[in-house]
Design goal:
The chain is mainly alpha-helical. The model is unreliable at about 180-200 (pLDDT under 50). A two-stranded antiparallel ribbon has the order 1-2. Helices cover about 50% and strands about 5% of the residues. It has helices at about 5-15, 15-25, 30-40, 55-75, 85-95, 100-115, 125-135, 160-170, 170-175; strands spanning about 120-125, 145. The relative contact order is 0.20. It is built from 9 helices and 2 strands, in the order ααααααβαβαα. The longest helix has 18 residues, at about 55-75.
Length: about 200
């Protein structure tokens, strides 16, 4: 049985650096408009679509980009002050693109947020994140939003985006974890990872 500290340390050592490397690509946008475009296209530096957005597909992602930029150009966004305002913008686009779901909305909003240098203080629950949060004893459902400070130590030391990622990746391990300091290192199952190094063409 793994402790919360085991899981936290394993995430910091093995997943955190990869996630930050991925975020760095979206931070390199030339301006906010370019950041919005890159975020919706969901491509990495090699031009591969992020694994999370493979099911959405390039055609629907391109449509989302078109709608997002049209809206952006017509109503220049000046209210991107935090993740929530960005999320609402992306969500409004998702309503117009069938198959652009909750996970894509979160991912795109996060990429724009990273470009702007905002830090998330809340965790937005969806899919595996919800399962991982329930494993910690929370009575939650998809769509709920929880402040980072509500999570137990040491998870509350992470920003909202990294905590979201940890909850998804380690959801099965968390179900059998304990809130005690341990010494064992763990490796998450590859099929439960929310951060993937491989995209799709």
């Amino acid at each position: 049985m793994k402790s919360y500290t085991d899981i936290y340390n394993d995430y910091r050592d093995n997943v955190y650096p990869c996630a930050e490397k991925e975020y760095s690509w979206y931070k390199k946008a030339d301006n906010l408009r370019d950041a919005v475009k890159k975020a919706f296209l969901s491509e990495d530096e090699q031009g591969k679509v992020h694994s999370h957005q493979c099911r959405v597909g390039r055609q629907r992602l391109a449509l989302a980009v078109e709608i997002a930029l049209e809206y952006f150009d017509g109503h220049y966004i000046s209210s991107f002050e935090n993740f929530h305002s960005i999320y609402q913008f992306v969500e409004s686009i998702s309503y117009e693109v069938k198959g652009f779901g909750q996970l894509a909305t979160y991912d795109v909003a996060l990429r724009i947020t990273k470009y702007l240098g905002c830090e998330l203080q809340k965790v937005y629950l969806h899919a595996g994140v919800t399962i991982g949060t329930r494993a910690l004893g929370f009575n939650v459902k998809d769509g709920d939003i929880i402040s980072v400070e509500q999570f137990p130590v040491p998870f509350n030391q992470l920003s909202g985006d990294h905590l979201e990622n940890l909850l998804c990746i380690y959801k099965e391990v968390l179900a059998n974890s304990i809130a005690e300091v341990g010494k064992t290192c763990i490796c998450p199952k590859t099929n439960s990872s929310c951060i993937s190094k491989n995209g799709c063409a």
